[in-house]
Design brief:
Layout: E1 9-12, E2 20-24, H1 42-45, H2 55-66, E3 70-73, E4 95-96, E5 99-100, H3 109-138, E6 143-150, E7 153-154, E8 157-158, E9 163-166, H4 172-184, E10 189-191, H5 203-208, E11 216-222, H6 229-251
Parallel strand pairs: 2-3, 2-6, 6-11, 9-10
Antiparallel strand pairs: 1-3, 4-5, 7-8, 9-11
GO molecular function, one term: hydrolase activity
Keywords: Hydrolase
Pfam families: FGase
Length: 253
């Protein structure tokens, strides 16, 4: 029996006044005691497979700078990946990057449905409510920005991309952010890199923004740039400015 003394929902700045909502689906590496150790050692539990290293620190600082509400997921994506629909084969991964996840092997339909009910459903319900409330507060549409990080080396291959701005169908905010980044000239930024919608990574922005006709972008940050507090805060200030400029120059409402 699950004795749920934990929550998949972390809020910050719910009284923020900006016409922006931030979401960080892979904020934590927390595995509640209800799930045991999932058969994982410390290296796996603290690795990028378990969470997006640095992303929550960036998101929290962006929330402060922008005065924008933030919703983060408070448990590891190894339990349930909140940026995947329940129909996705990798929403509860039996293997992630180089790590096997014994606690996710041979799960029954009941087990999978239970994880979805405990993690996916409340998280995305909270996202919908937060967006609705922010639209009421500002009296109109809001931009939805999700914050992620990626590894500098993936399956042995170095990645040159440092920042990615992702979308599926609504490109305006991502394109505006890329223009701002290229004008700044500090980081190597690209559209739909190192992933794109074909990789199945745009679930949250499609569900909460594109399907509602709202401006959106999914920010991917190479995690060697934000794997310490100083780097993460610096990146947050940089990206907060980028998003503000982008929303004011054709990418926003």
């Amino acid at each position: 029996m699950v004795n749920q003394q934990w929550s998949p929902i972390w809020f910050r700045k719910t009284n923020g006044a900006a016409p922006i909502v931030l979401i960080c689906e892979h904020a934590a590496h927390v595995i509640p005691e209800d799930f045991g150790d999932m058969g994982l050692d410390d290296a796996a539990r603290l690795s990028h497979a378990a969470w997006d290293i640095g992303a929550e620190t960036v998101a929290a600082e962006m929330s402060r700078i922008l005065d924008a509400p933030l919703l983060s997921c408070g448990v590891s994506r190894l339990l349930y990946d909140c940026n995947r629909p329940p129909t996705a084969a990798d929403c509860i991964p039996p293997r992630s990057e180089v790590f096997d996840i014994p606690g996710n092997r041979d799960l029954s339909e009941t087990d999978i449905a239970g994880r979805c009910m405990l993690i996916h459903d409340p998280f995305h319900h909270a996202a919908t409510q937060l967006i609705d409330l922010q639209m009421q507060r500002v009296g109109g549409p809001v931009s939805i920005v999700t914050i992620h990080s990626f590894t500098a080396v993936y399956h042995g291959q170095p990645r040159d991309t440092q920042l990615g701005f992702l979308f599926r169908d609504r490109a305006a905010l991502s394109q505006a952010a890329l223009r701002v980044e290229r004008a700044k000239g500090r980081f190597r930024a690209e559209l739909n890199a190192p992933y794109s919608a074909k990789d199945g990574v745009t679930y949250s922005i499609v569900r909460h923004a594109e399907n509602r006709g709202l401006p959106t972008t999914m920010i991917e940050i190479r995690n060697d740039l934000i794997d310490n507090a100083g780097g993460a805060r610096d990146m947050a200030a940089h990206l907060a400015d980028t998003i503000l400029q982008a929303t004011r120059t054709g990418g926003g409402i």
